[in-house]
Amino acid sequence: NFTPNAFVEDCVKELQEKVKGDKVVLGLSGGVDSTVAAVLLHKAIGKNLYCIFVNNGLLRKNEFENVLHQYKDMGLNVKGVDATARFMTALDGLEDPEAKRKAIGNAFIEVFDEEAHLIEDVTWLAQGTIYPDVIESVSVKGPSATIKSHHNVGGLPDYMKLKIVEPLRMLFKDEVRRVGKTLGIDPELLGRHPFPGPGLSIRILGAITPEKVRILQEVDAVFINGLKEHGLYDKVWQAGAILLPVNSVGVMGDERTYEKVVALRAVESTDGMTADWVHLPYEFLMKISNEIINKVKGVNRVVYDISSKPPATIEWE
Ligand code: XMP
User: Fold this and answer.
1) Binding site membership of 98 for ligand 1 (Cβ less than 6 Å)
2) What is the ipTM of this complex?
3) For 261-267, what is the mean pLDDT?
């Protein structure tokens, strides 16, 4: 029987014994796991925890600024690094999903490595790895490893020579949320939907351009804010929008348009391994579709993804 209070107490003690007076670096993603890991470590070792939050330019609209503020308000010692230009260069011309994931993973490692080197005498790397990540990284040794490469586990190269500390390694997601609640983390942050490490890059099918990122950020913001306003956000496990690599014909007044199509996706799931599409109310879908087409320049058609996993995956790439 898991008790978050006892976990926090034991974990803080263990971290203090393990890390002692050493410095620890941790990459924050804005997600639940890395945030809870950071707050636990902060409780244990205070200012010896150095957090780095990288903007890869593929986050949700205004996410970098908002989350960075939130982290600072929580008392974390966090450095925000805007590496958007670097990621855009790394992605330039790439169309293949796996190539995009690799480019982003490599760019992240480069940026993180540079930033970690600026911290004098840092000896530990902390990660928000949770139990399902551990299981998954063990089980993806076979041919299925090539289906999708995840960058969360063991993502950093050996040459960094940092010792690894993973305080959430034995916990399931719901336990991580309960620990976060005990630690006083904002319930809104703890209830956030999962978001993939490569961010919007795998929701822009094909090659990435700054303009496509802008369009998708706007569409996604309308959808996610709409879910929140209609009390639907917490009923959905994960939601987002996908920018399709096709144009479709439309009419606007007397003019013919030829613009982008976006797909909306919302799923119910417990662990992401299987998922059902959510039966969002038609009224809600109608309102969101109108709002997207009216507000977001460059989009003239919205479709809703009614595929479950398996066989469809949650992400389209
Ligand atoms: P799929 O598309 O495989 O997604 O059904 C299952 C869950 O994993 C997330 N996902 C990723 N997360 N890096 C990540 O950190 C990735 O490359 C990646 N691909 C998929 C997806 O958002 C969903 O929550």
Assistant:
1) no
2) 0.99
3) 98
